[in-house]
Amino acid sequence: SGPRPPPRAKAAVPEGWRRLERLLDEYSTADGLEPARRQRLIAAIREEARIAGLEDDLGLAASVSAAEAIPQIDRFVCDLKEGQFADGLHVFGRGTCSEAEKAALLDALAGRRVAPGPSGSPYRGRSDVLPTGRNLFAVDPRAVPTPSAHAQGVKLAEELLRRHLQDHGDWPKGLVVDLWGSSTMRTAGEDFAMALHLVGIAPRWDHGSGRVSGYDIIAPAELGRPRIDVTLRVSGLFRDVFSGLAQLFEAATEALAERGDEADENPYRPRIARVFGPRPGHYGAGIASIPDVFTAEAREAAGEAWLSASSWAIAADGEIRPDRAGIETRLATADSFVHTQDLPETDLLLAADYAAHEAGIAAAAGRLGAKVPSLYHLDATRPDQPHARSLTEEISRVVRARAANPAWIAGMMRHGFRGAAEISATLEHMAAFAHLAGAVPPHLFDLYYDATLGNDEVRAFMARENPAALAAIETCFTRLHDASLWQTRRNSIAAALQEAS
């Protein structure tokens, strides 16, 4: 049974961004302003964004027009204002649902029945998961994706395509979709439905049982765009629980290969494997933790580990066979990658799996000598407002909204030893993204240093409650600096690192 997640705290715009926020508010009502004043506002907004490092995070070169840059800056600031993070950690036996959780634990230990209950996130509209402390059940794999999950998957696909068009001015030529079994259970298959819609496939349901009974191929004219060439990289749990979905995807793409569409309208003409995952009985992306040293050799080893953990193809008949050449070819021709996050309670810097999957593919591309695909993190935590961000943009949002936020750190400090470990772990996950994918600009490490080692109170807390976590965070910052993954422009930080070493 999963515990009730801790309460959410509202993130705020960083203190140094107040002027940027005011300028954006003024610009939003500036349609009637005389052109000279409007141009001054634009220049001021872009200068504030440049100073904050936001233009780097959003990939906005100086040559990008104001019509494109200002809305992106404004949306990022709005995302920060609307963001939330967990206020502290869950403590068993405390808070709402504590009595139900304690009673269920005692019943389980005594061999008594524990009442069943659905799984999911109470912060994503699933109030039916309360009270927690029940024996969780998931979904019928044969009924995934559900009609509502399919509708949401269409929205996710459209948002991803919108972002890709914004960034590249064209449709994706080859897209790797990262699918996890856990999120498929929670959402009843939203991200799998997204993959189907990108291909131009719709599920067909049995009206009596509600189970998926097949698929329909959407005609190009109805689709209104090219079919996207999609490769699925599935987790070990997805492979085990949702093998039927992998087979359905392969069967659908094989059917597409038989169609008489023009080659430029149908990237599925070649009959090749398109669903890959770990070897049967194995799980994860093969990258367990960050290495002792941040070297090119360590990054290449991580890339090799990702490839080895992704080199088993799942066929339409359910057979799972090794196909290293297949995954190498699919990765070498991919120009985009996407991972979808549905859980509001977490973020990509709170668990090592995110970097292993989302940055591991970048290391794998480097291992092959191929161009690294554009890395997207699709935020589906608010079903009504999905938001596709670049990996760097998502990391920037999380660092500013949660990791470097004094309110989050104060919440961790309430939990002593464990809280200090969480503070240290966040840096390790940032380091993994920097090492494997080069996705963390230096100023984000500056922000996290200021919030942790640069804060005397936080440093003293870690020294008192968890000296090992303090040593780990000091070592990690030093290694990042020595490997030139973090080149701070702040003399005070550089001096402190030199003194520590």
UniProtKB/TrEMBL annotation:
InterPro entries: CobN/Mg_chltase (IPR003672)
Stretch forming the signal peptide: none
Top-level division of the source organism's lineage: Bacteria
UniProt keyword Signal present: no
Enzyme Commission number(s) of this protein: 6.6.1.2
Leading EC class: ligase
Domain CobN/magnesium chelatase, first and last residues per copy: 6-95, 98-491
Pfam family of the protein (one): CobN-Mg_chel
Keywords, in A-Z order: Ligase
Any GO MF annotation of the entry: cobaltochelatase activity
Keyword Nucleotidyltransferase: no
UniProt-recorded name of the protein: Cobaltochelatase subunit CobN
Organism: Bradyrhizobium uaiense
